[in-house]
Amino acid sequence: MKTLLVVSGGDAPGINNVIGRYLALAANGDTVIGADGGFPGLLSGQLVPLTADMLIPWMGRGGSILASSRDPVLNQQEAADRIRTVLSENNVDNILLFGGNGTLRHIPPLLKEWGIPCIGLPTTIDNDVPGTEMTLGFDSACNFAYHAIDGAQATAHALRGRIFLVETLGGTCGNLALAVAHGAGAHAVILPEYPYDDAWLAGRITHALETYGYAMVVICEGARGARTLMDDIPKWTGTRVRDIRLGHAQRGGVASHRDRVLAADMAQAAYTALKGGTQMGIACVAGGKLSVHEGVLENIAPTPPDPSLYNRINGLI
Ligand code: F6P
After folding, report:
1. Residues 265 and 116 in one domain
2. Quick check: is 315 in a domain?
3. pLDDT by residue (tens digit) across 124-150?
4. Which residues line ligand 1 (CB under 6 A)?
5. 224 and 166 inside one domain
6. Minimum-distance ligand 1 atom for the alpha carbon of 250
7. What are phi and psi of 110, to 5 degrees?
8. Could you tell me which of 171, 174, 160, 157 has the C-alpha nearest to residue 218?
9. Annotated catalytic, 265?
């Protein structure tokens, strides 16, 4: 069996672990190659050989040894012919696809239509892929945020009266910010999915300053206020805001224990499915267990961040 690995969209901690574990499984007679630069790389024939030993220094490191791309090249008219030609010229049997919500919604249906066998792996720090409880990289991104917040809380204890505004990645999906706020004990969390009232937020911050000696607000980068609260909060409270933007450092952090285990399970499930002849599937976690869901992810409505948790963190219940 010859498998082509393609990373598409935002990278995530743990991708290198999946690649390394997949290569180890394939080392007894199968061949694995990678597309350098996602689907644009694949369409232009930029394929690189991969061997099990190559990944040893990369295990646990964020990013991806295989460069990714966000360019939607598969929408081009000639894409189907081009991809078939490259795959057949290189004797590729199937594709192992790494990607987030955008990738997994759009690309597996195209590959299915074009008769190209593929297993998709939900890999994104955003944890926003409908159909799976857990995406690879989410746990690591939470841990990255905790390191930053722990540092802020240490200095918050030493120098009282500070307001910290911690901005996570996540785009327009608040799952990451909500999980971080929950785990870190933030005094307020602001998400793109839920509107909030400025006066309420001012009161919440003032209450935290008076009660705990500091205030910790976690905000998702795509939420209202992500660019203005730095200026607004001091006007409301009379206290300057200390801004902590985790940015892309959060996406490129070290893979956590949980993500390394998930990566190992993803590699095993994908290898078994491809070896067994599965034509199309997505590796999903349900009830805490990973398995390959046959077919593409269709008609699964996205679930918003847990409203009861949001209300609890924000003292709204
Ligand atoms: O891959 C998901 C993600 O990291 C989001 O959390 C974030 O909003 C976005 O990608 C950033 O995209 P880019 O790397 O293109 O700036």
Report:
1. yes
2. no
3. 999 999 999 999 999 999 999 999 999
4. 9-10, 70, 100, 124-126, 169-171, 221, 251
5. yes
6. 4
7. -65, -45
8. 174
9. no
